[in-house]
């Protein structure tokens, strides 16, 4: 019975993983990069690097007051202002505003409009910095890992959600299948073909098994209202906003009174919040500024708790009086917020964030080795057919091509995205969309080449291209920006995220380069063995004259 259960689970594990492994690889790689989406966005806006080089001299209150003054000049009639104060991950003052949406404006048009409605301020002088190039930066990768691209967001979330459900089944069935899973974690047998790939798959799976379970389950839970709409519809019908307002509170911010009133000084509000929390607020949000019903919301910085719902204090925007503070969450809401927070990892300090990043890389390796393991196993079953002049089946050839296009092609796509950020004209129209297009152009080209010729030589070629592109990014900076690796390392704390980015892509490029070299070295060894065997065979069959 036990062997029968394990055999059944092995079948489930194989097909639950194989059917969605290439989608999961994209989700894992983009999601792993999204742990550093703020740093990636900062790197992709080199125009801001000069302002970030010097340490900030303005206090939080001064920064907020200067941002409010700038917003008064640029968007006095906006419905909402938001101000992000400098911190270790974002060394600049970010101020943004939302104008009343126009009728018949699509979601994409609204998102593009929001990117144009912001300004970045120098934390030393309080003056606006040079206008950065149009780019979605790390937010593109963050959205890619659950919204996908070129399709309505709801479709992408359904597709990714179904893939995550398959992965949860694959993880659980994999644990059941491998009765010696923890022992196998400490076992690696190189140069053993299928056994070596199985050892690699087991090691990368067990290395971060709690992370894999957590990130998959929490990823499903974060979008549970999409996947399980029946309870909401039963209680609220089509009034989903009412449900969110009842559960989360403050979902709707009301309407303006259309009565002009001056905005109160932000400084005393910040001081009151700092006394209450023991830490300076990280974000200021002002609803209906310059109106009699204006409200100022101050948010505590992330990192104090698992929950993604940070405590907030709301003040009357005209009088400056405290209106409310975030009440204790209900048990259900606190649980959901903690699960959501574990997935986003806003609470992670620098060291823990590195650990999450490494676990994400291990997850990517787990998916990749699982896909490769299936191909190796199936090719071995065709060994006799190939030896007799036959060919492998269509399914095996298709999987081999998809493996090359995903495992070796995705690093090329990521590198092309970063190269496009540096090489596209800065004043180009729809520049952010063009960067995203180059991601998929490069990935599509890699996938197409793999379908035409899914061979070991194609593996080496694509791994080499990915290695050159990734490792060449720091050198690209030397010719296209004034904040290359040498300057970033010694240019002050504000530029260290840019230096860290260059170092990471250099290391990833070196890793891909080593993989390409190893494949070439292995091919030479295999050819040498064949030649030796052929020479020995011809010698043994020679008859003396």
Shape: globular
Strand content: 5-15%
**What Rg, in angstroms, do the CA atoms define?**
27 Å
Which regions are unreliable across 5 or more consecutive residues at pLDDT < 50? 540-545
Distance linking N and C termini: 66 Å
Largest sheet: 7 strands, antiparallel
Strand order of the largest sheet: 3-2-1-4-5-6-7
Average pLDDT, all residues: 85
Helix content: 55-70%
Enumerate how many helices there are, as a single number: 24
What structural category do the secondary elements indicate? alpha+beta
- Count of DSSP E strands? 7
Molecular structure report:
The chain contains 24 helices and seven strands. It has a seven-stranded antiparallel beta sheet with strand order 3-2-1-4-5-6-7. The termini are far apart. It is globular and about 95 Å long. Mean pLDDT is 85; it is low at 540-545. The chain is an alpha+beta fold. Helix 3 (37-43) crosses helix 7 (138-147) and helix 5 (60-74) runs antiparallel to helix 15.
Topology diagram in text:
Blueprint: H1 2-18, H2 21-34, H3 37-43, H4 49-53, H5 60-74, E1 80-84, E2 93-98, H6 107-116, E3 118-121, H7 138-147, H8 153-177, H9 181-185, H10 194-207, H11 209-222, H12 224-227, H13 230-236, H14 240-248, H15 266-277, E4 283-287, E5 295-299, E6 312-316, E7 322-325, H16 331-344, H17 350-381, H18 383-387, H19 394-423, H20 431-452, H21 456-471, H22 473-480, H23 485-490, H24 496-540
Antiparallel strand pairs: 1-2, 1-4, 2-3, 4-5, 5-6, 6-7
Helix pairs in contact: 1-8, 2-7, 2-8, 2-17, 2-19, 3-7, 5-15, 8-11, 10-17, 11-16, 17-19, 19-20, 19-21, 19-22, 21-24
């Amino acid at each position: 019975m036990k062997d029968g259960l394990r055999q059944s689970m092995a079948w489930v594990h194989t097909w639950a993983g194989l059917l969605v492994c290439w989608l999961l690889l994209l989700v894992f790689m983009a999601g792993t990069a999204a742990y550093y989406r703020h740093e990636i966005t900062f790197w992709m806006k080199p125009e801001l690097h000069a302002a970030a080089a010097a340490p900030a001299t303005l206090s939080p209150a001064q920064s907020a007051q200067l941002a409010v003054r700038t917003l008064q000049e640029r968007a006095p009639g906006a419905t909402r202002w938001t101000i992000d104060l400098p911190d270790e991950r974002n060394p600049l003052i970010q101020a943004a505003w939302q104008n009343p949406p126009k009728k018949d404006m699509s979601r994409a048009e609204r998102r593009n409009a929001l990117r144009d409605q912001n300004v970045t301020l120098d934390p030393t002088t309080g003056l606006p910095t040079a206008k950065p190039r149009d780019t979605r930066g790390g937010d593109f990768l963050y959205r890619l890992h659950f919204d996908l691209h070129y399709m309505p967001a709801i479709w992408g979330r359904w597709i990714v959600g179904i893939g995550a459900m398959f992965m949860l089944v694959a993880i659980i069935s994999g644990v059941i299948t491998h009765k010696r899973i923890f022992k196998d974690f400490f076992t690696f047998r190189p140069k053993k073909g299928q056994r070596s790939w199985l050892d690699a798959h087991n090691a990368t799976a067990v290395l971060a098994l709690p992370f894999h379970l957590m990130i998959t389950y929490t990823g499903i839970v974060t979008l549970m209202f999409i996947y399980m709409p029946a309870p909401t519809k039963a209680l609220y019908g089509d009034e989903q906003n009412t449900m969110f307002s009842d559960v989360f509170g403050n979902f709707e911010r009301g309407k303006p009174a259309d009565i002009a009133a001056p905005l109160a000084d932000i400084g005393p509000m910040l001081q009151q919040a700092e006394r209450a929390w023991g830490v300076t607020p990280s974000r200021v949000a002002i609803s209906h500024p310059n109106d009699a019903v204006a409200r100022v919301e101050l948010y505590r910085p992330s990192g104090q708790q698992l929950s993604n719902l940070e405590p907030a204090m709301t003040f009357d925007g005209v009088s400056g009086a405290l209106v409310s503070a975030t009440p204790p969450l209900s048990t259900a809401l606190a649980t959901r917020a903690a699960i959501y927070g574990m997935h986003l990892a806003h609470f992670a300090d620098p060291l823990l964030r590195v650990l999450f990043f490494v676990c994400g890389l291990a997850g990517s390796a787990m998916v990749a080795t699982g896909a490769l393991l299936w191909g190796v196993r199936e090719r071995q079953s065709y060994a006799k057919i190939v030896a007799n002049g036959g060919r492998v089946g269509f399914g095996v050839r298709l999987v081999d091509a998809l493996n090359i296009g995903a495992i070796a092609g995705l690093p090329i796509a990521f590198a092309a995205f970063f190269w496009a950020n540096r090489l596209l004209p800065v004043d180009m129209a729809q520049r952010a969309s063009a960067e995203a297009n180059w991601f998929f152009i490069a990935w599509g080209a890699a996938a197409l080449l793999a379908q035409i010729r899914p061979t070991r030589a194609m593996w080496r070629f694509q791994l080499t291209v990915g290695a050159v592109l990734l490792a060449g990014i720091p050198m690209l900076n030397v010719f296209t920006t004034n904040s290359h690796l040498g300057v970033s390392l010694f240019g002050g704390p504000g530029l260290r995220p840019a230096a860290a980015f260059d170092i990471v892509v250099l290391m990833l490029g070196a890793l891909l380069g080593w993989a390409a070299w190893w494949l070439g070295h292995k091919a030479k060894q295999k050819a040498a063995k064949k030649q030796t065997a052929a020479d020995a065979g011809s010698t043994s069959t020679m008859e003396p004259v």
